[in-house]
Structure prediction request, 185 residues.
Amino acid sequence: MDPNHIRLETERLILRLPRREDFDAYAELQADEEAARYIGGQLSRAPAWRKFLQMPGAWMIQGYGMFAVVEKASGRWIGQTGPWQPEGWPGTEVGWSFLRSAWGNGYAREAAIAAIDWTFANLGWTEVIHSIHPDNHPSQALAARLGSRKRGTGKLPPPHEDVPIEIWDQTREEWLARRERGDST
Prediction:
């Protein structure tokens, strides 16, 4: 599978590999204290650039990474979601982060559903997790709407080993059964 040709579409969104032109919006997300609070903290442009390069690198080396999420109507980058499993990670994660201006529109849910569908169809994973800070109530609510349940506390690898997280998860079978039943996930 050539990652450069992967493109998912939902009713309102396009999910594709990150591109250079996505960086300004990505830097905006990383500079926003509230939006970046639970994804490693606020960053200025130079460190944001280095973090931005993680996803294209993951796609190149692992064959998967988080998708850039683009709003169809405007063509603007609004966030990222998708499979993520760096060295030492507590499991096979599908994560998300979005610009604050995109919050409250159901975009994270819509994009995460497409990303989880793609992940289970293409990567052979038997479960997905979501590593969520205990105070990140919107992400907990999204994980629950996606059908995941809180498994307990987890631990991230250095340099984030002191960040408290809870692991939310579900199996491939649970996801597929819910999708087959037409649950709104």
About this structure: The helical segments are 23-31, 33-36, 45-52, 54-62, 107-122, 137-145, 172-181.
